[in-house]
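Budget justification aside, the reviewers requested a transparent look at the raw inputs and outputs of the sequence design task funded under Objective 1. We therefore reproduce one unedited record. The lines immediately below are the structure tokens for a 471-residue chain.
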């Protein structure tokens, strides 16, 4: 079980308290957590990143797993502690590799970005209890370093992915879209349908001589529907109360190994033979279902635009992965296991939602007020459409975060207005992607399959989160 997509809200005014507050960190901040080509990665930074990930994990999963969550199975034969620590260490390698190669792409922080990072770190320390900061090992230096690394990573991603070939031919992006009604094949061992039919008719096989009413076979039902659909698909759907789904596909999807849709190639092949607004004259059978299909558009331009973006996003992912792999191949990375094993998440954290009297929030868009932190109009930079290339968190963190948040315990204050910090794949001023898990290099194009929870933000948010906490 990977936890690379847990959203982090470091730049938001999140007040964190430990359930065992006051113990403080037992980590030697000056010791080496790992070395990259002989350069030491400080334990202070590594531990803080790990602890902040633990804050997010506790916030989202504690209610599901209970207080022994960190010793529970992650689903991969390891504990959740081991899994998260592995992700964090992988992420550290990526962050410091990108930092080491920043000059390859003329990537550097501007004075404005440096100032924004300093202010963001100071605000984080101000908005959290000292007990929590001690537990996390959070200092101005460690917080700033994490934000600096994440900003470099964001800018490096933008620079690396700019090198892709942006030409996509019409043939590559061309899409056909068809609609279909699916009839699941009935499991022969499942008698629930017969039982339900008997119950609905009020009959009991033991008390009556009448034959039980048999449920229609899926194929029979599909064929009866097809007869009506050939006359008028819409009326047939309405009359039967069926659900209509749609699918867009291209020439490449007709090959099993290249099929990017969720449907069987046999269905796509049948659809590919249809003309506009035509219904296939026979039911298409797959291993688990029967399909009746209708061609909606043999040249779906909107679907083609989406396909083009998907192709470009895939190229960005592949380019980014390619560069990272080359960096990893040529470097010497060594984890200091004796120090890293000292990191644990024994002290649980809690995060509290804001008081109900908070009515304004700088995350709303177009001048709206309220407490919804899912809007996204205040971006500072351009999003390249990817999502998972960040440091192991969800792309729901805010692009263009400014290190300010208008949420505090029991009251709301205005955003301090210090802009200039981007997060997800932005090319503008970036002060910090506040993400913490390991880099999700292989699936950054879709914001996909997120494990964990989203902190309610969105790419392009103005860097706020309506969460505060209590001891």
């Amino acid at each position: 079980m990977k936890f690379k997509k847990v959203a982090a809200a470091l730049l938001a005014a999140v007040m964190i308290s430990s359930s065992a507050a006051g113990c403080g960190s037992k980590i030697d901040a000056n010791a080496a957590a790992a070395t990259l080509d002989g350069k030491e990665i400080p334990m202070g930074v590594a531990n803080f990143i790990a602890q902040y990930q633990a804050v997010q994990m506790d916030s989202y999963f504690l209610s599901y797993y209970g207080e022994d969550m960190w010793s529970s199975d992650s689903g991969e034969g390891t504990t959740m502690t081991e899994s998260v620590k592995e992700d964090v260490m992988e992420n550290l390698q990526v962050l410091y590799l990108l930092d080491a190669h920043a000059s390859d792409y003329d990537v550097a922080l501007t004075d404005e970005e440096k100032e924004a990072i300093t202010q963001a770190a100071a605000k984080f320390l101000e908005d959290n209890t000292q007990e929590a900061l001690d537990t996390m090992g959070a200092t101005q230096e460690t917080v700033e370093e994490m934000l600096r690394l994440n900003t470099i990573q964001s800018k490096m991603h933008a620079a690396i992915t700019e090198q892709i070939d942006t030409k996509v031919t019409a043939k590559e992006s061309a899409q056909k879209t068809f609609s279909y009604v699916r009839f699941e094949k009935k499991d022969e061992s499942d008698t629930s349908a017969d039982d339900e039919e008997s119950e609905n008719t009020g009959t009991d096989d033991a008390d009556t001589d009448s034959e039980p009413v048999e449920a229609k076979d899926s194929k029979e039902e599909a064929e009866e529907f097809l007869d009506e659909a050939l006359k008028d698909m819409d009326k047939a759907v309405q009359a039967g109360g069926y659900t209509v789904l749609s699918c867009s596909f291209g020439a490449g999807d007709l090959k099993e190994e290249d099929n990017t849709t969720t449907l069987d190639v046999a269905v796509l092949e049948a659809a590919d033979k249809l003309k506009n607004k035509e219904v296939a004259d026979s039911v298409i059978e797959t291993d688990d279902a029967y399909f009746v299909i209708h061609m909606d558009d043999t040249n779906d331009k909107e679907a083609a635009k989406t396909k083009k973006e998907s192709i470009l996003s895939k190229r960005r992912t592949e380019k980014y992965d390619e560069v990272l792999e080359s960096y990893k191949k040529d470097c010497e990375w060594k984890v200091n296991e004796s120090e890293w094993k000292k990191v644990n998440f024994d002290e649980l954290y809690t995060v509290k939602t804001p008081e109900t009297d908070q009515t304004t929030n700088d995350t709303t868009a177009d001048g709206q007020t309220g407490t919804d932190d899912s809007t996204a109009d205040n971006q500072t930079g351009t999003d390249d459409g990817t999502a998972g290339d960040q440091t192991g968190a969800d792309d729901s963190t805010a692009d263009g975060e400014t290190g300010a948040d208008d949420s505090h315990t029991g009251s709301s204050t205005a955003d301090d207005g210090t802009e200039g910090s981007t997060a997800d794949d932005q090319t503008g001023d970036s002060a910090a992607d506040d993400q913490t898990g390991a880099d999700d290099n292989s699936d950054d194009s879709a914001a996909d399959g997120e494990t964990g929870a989203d902190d309610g933000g969105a790419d392009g948010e103005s860097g706020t989160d309506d969460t505060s906490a209590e001891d």
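The longest strand covers residues 176-184. Residues 17-165+315-412 form one domain. Computational costs for records of this kind are itemized in the attached budget.
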